[in-house]
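User: My collaborator sent over this chain with a note saying "see what the structure looks like." That's all I know about it. Can you take a look?
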Amino acid sequence: MRDTRSKQLTRIILAFITYFLLIHHVTFSQCLELVWSDEFDYTGLPDPNKWTFETGGNWYNNELQYYRDGTNNAEVMNGKLVITAKEESFGGNDYTSARMITFQNGGYWQYGKVEARIKLPYGQGIWPAFWMLGKNFETVPWPACGEIDIMEMIGGGDNDKTIHGTAHWEDYNSNHAYVGGSKTLSSGIYADDFHVFSMEWNAQQIKWFMDGIQYYSLDISSQDKSEFDAEFFIILNVAVGGDWPGNPDATTVFPQTMEIDYVRVYSSENYLKIVGPDEVYSAEQDLLYQLPYDPGSSYSWSVPAGAEITTPVDSNAVSVNWGCEEGTIACNITTACGNYELEYPVKLKEYQITGDHFFTDNQTGMAYSVPELSGNTYTWFVPPGATITSGQGTHSILLDMGTEEGQVKVEIENVCGKDTLVKHLLHPGQYPYPDPMKPHILPGTIYPVEFDYGGDGVAYHDNTAVNQGNASRQDEYVDTEWNDGGETIGYVLTGEWLEYTIQVDTPGVYFTELRVSSDMTTPGPMKILINGEDRLGNIPISYTGGWSSFVSIFPGQIQLYASDTLLRYEIVSGGFNIGRLRIVSYDPSLVREVSPDMIRIFPNPTADFITVISPEVIRRLEIVTLSGELVEALSVDDSSSSFSVNGLKPGIYALRITTKGGKHIIRKIIKL
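Assistant: Without extra context I'll predict from the sequence alone. Here is the result:
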């Protein structure tokens, strides 16, 4: 083990390296740029400018410890941070320990290398961890905020010689997804000596290392792992007990200590990430794409057929004139750390005319425009009786209207050909949104913020005359929010309603899925009317764990007719948020949500009540002890049910779920 003097020498060497890099004008170094560290070369409490204690006794995973602040369980001494798990009563728990985070002190980073030199504790029920959590965890519930476990160990027997590295995220179907690897010592256990645990992370992948040896990697370049394209903070803790390691037993020795020699973060900002527009117009010019500059690195850029790089291709930044098709910008970069082939997909944007859809007779000064791009020519056309007062031949015009409805139209011509754009000009009324000439097609998906044009009392009714959300359509009263991977309707109130003009292309009976969330104990219900007819009955809504915790509910099957033209949400009783509505063919092979693994149970653990949401109608719920004794049974004829568990003694139970389709599913529940 190194003493404090050797650690001071290490800092001097690191400072010299940093100075050497600076005098050589290195603005980016993937290998050596130390951006944050704690060497623990002091005595007493952990540095409050870097670490914050998280305290309390009710943690996830059925853990047994109470996390305390102060030096009782975490103290810096002899050049090490020592976190100690003790067998002692405190705050209603039988064990104490410490959990420290960098979040409150600006200690969060995106990309780079994070490492720590640690000597681990050991024993049955001991669970040390060095890990990271997404900075947005307070507004985006786990696992959608993302989690990177750099090192975890569950103690006891052979487990004392194996550590785990894991990534957690939320997949496309809002399920918890995770993968990872492990590293087992050939001899001894991790409590025998210090080891270096590290993680390297860029826009393409995460790699896990133990003592410099890579043992696992994960490709994170796909959109379903976008959680890892964000800032994360560091957590150090030692848990006692829990669902994964199990509880301590007679073999467990207390106290147990985790000793941390240092924690370091390297080169976090813009680590090997191409920056530039990911959506462009056809034939758009002078587009800038770049990587961080490092004179010790070499670059070689390439673009899709039809596009052209107008600056040197061996620079860290290039200017591009786009072609007529979407494609991928690529750069082969060789650094002191290795060779990387980076790719950056670029999509084409569609031109759109900006301006009002609706007019009053003889309205003047109406403005319409499209993006102005070099090399484009523009020709405008207007409805009969209207006059272009300025701008013909440019990207923007002013228009005086007459009394006739019609189209404002523009022809855009460039090297890729001619595009003709149309915007319908109409007298005010109720029309589909966003295109008043295109109803929502069913079967299909209706997004909640796409309620009809027409305003309050015509296309919707909202009890508050202001949009209290932060998403689109701020000129309307409806409370729109960013949530559930898109835009949603915020907290709805009793008596409110929304309408959507629809067109049924294929009449028939269809499966329905609605996304909802609520932080209320008794929200809802609501109705979905089509052409004024209630075809689903009252749709119950349940507590989902929070306003951002959206879940799928399945109101049942619905009949659609060719004559259907209007769908309406009626809020019978408020207190919830509304996400997308899907009306699709009932096909279990295509609709993943009907599989039994999609059953949601929350909150779990729980102290008072529990909610079960199923993709199939639930017939019966039974609570059974682990010895097989039936404690409680409940008949249900719905896709969701909430019930009290106040009468249960604290402990672990089995919840047996019987569905209408004859499935029998067993889930574990924990009564606090």
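A starting point for your reply to your collaborator: Residues 4-23 form the longest helix (20 residues).
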